[in-house]
Amino acid sequence: MGFVIDPPKQASVAVHNSEDRFPVRRIFCVGRNYAAHAREMGHDPDRELPFYFTKPADAVVDNGTEVPYPPETGNLHYEAELVVAIGRECKDATLEKALDHVFGYAVGNDLTRRDLQSEAKNKGRPWDTGKAFDHSAPCAEIHAIDQVDNIENARIWLSVNGDIKQDSNINKLIWSVPEVIVNLSGLFTLKPGDLIYTGTPEGVGPVVPGDVIKVGIDGLTELETKIV
Ligand code: MN
Questions:
Q1: Which of 30, 36, 39, 94 has the most CB atoms at less than 10 Å from its CB?
Q2: Which is it for strands 51-55 and 76-78: parallel, antiparallel or unpaired?
Q3: In which domain, by residue range, is 23 found?
Q4: Rounded to an integer, what is the distance from CA 172 to the centroid of its chain?
Q5: Beta-carbon contacts of residue 145 (< 8 Å; ≥ 6 apart)
Q6: Ligand 1 centroid to 81 CA: how many Å?
Q7: Distance 30 CA to ligand 1 centre (A)
Q8: Measuring CA to CA, which residue among 225, 220, 228, 222 is closest to residue 85?
Q9: Could you report the per-residue pLDDT of 141-184, keeping only the tens digit for each?
């Protein structure tokens, strides 16, 4: 059996210290997972359960790749995020076993057409045009979980053209990585190849063509993206 058209190319992310790549199946993203970012977006972080949106697998962009400024926006925003790569199928995970399903961690940038997202919020519409566009998920190489120390207390920062714009710590996540896996795996059967962008701290803002965005998390490979 063949296919009536060429099958889509498998989306993938580089893996630290490996020639092989991590195949991407789905991209889940957590909304408002740092209290100070929830407040800057006009919400009360204390009263909200985690919620999710998705991006297509082929929205991933390799480290160092130039990203074209996307169409139909005048307000493209960066969002520094810890990315969790799922390596084993996971349904109704428990807190104790949640990390057993994780292949590794990476540094990501949840690029957002903020004007389209805001319009969607105001009209009660889905966020897809604001969040799930082409090239919207830059991701640096994945580090295997057993090669990462103390990610739960790692600094997370982002700079634009060398100026620090976001500077926080993974320990400020409202919902920790294990808690997100427990909650999300109750809603969806997580499968090998799924990525979870875990949310961004405060300090989000716009970028324009020519800007160079760098994102870092202690212990992981830095992510650099130039907007062109
Ligand atoms: Mn985000």
A1: 30
A2: unpaired
A3: 15-227
A4: 16
A5: 99, 102, 103, 104, 105
A6: 7
A7: 6
A8: 220
A9: 999 999 999 999 999 999 999 999 999 999 999 999 999 999 99
* Residue 5 in domain: no
Reported pTM:
0.97
Using the mean position of ligand 1's atoms as its centre, give its distance from the Cα of residue 53 in Å.
9
Q: What is the pLDDT of residues 65-96, one digit of tens each?
A: 999 999 999 999 999 999 999 999 999 999 99
- The total number of structural domains in the chain stands at 1
Q: Which of 38, 6, 130, 27 has its CA nearest to residue 77?
A: 130
Is 10 part of any domain?
Answer: no
221 CA from centroid of ligand 1 (Å): 19
pLDDT in tens, 194-217: 999 999 999 999 999 999 999 999
- Residues within 5 A (CB) of ion ligand 1: 79, 110, 200
Q: Name every residue whose Cβ is closer than 8 Å to that of residue 153 and which is 6 or more positions away in sequence.
A: 169, 170, 171
DSSP H helices, 58-208, are: 114-123, 128-131, 177-187
CA of 200 to the centre of ligand 1 (A): 5
Start-to-end C-alpha separation, the chain? 42
Q: Is residue 98's pLDDT more than 70?
A: yes
- Measured between alpha carbons, how far is residue 131 from residues 4, 76, 115, 160 in Å? 30, 10, 11, 20
Q: Are 171 and 201 in contact (CB under 8 A)?
A: no
Predicted confidence at residue 47, as pLDDT, reads 65
In a domain, 1, yes or no: no
Residue 9 domain flag: no
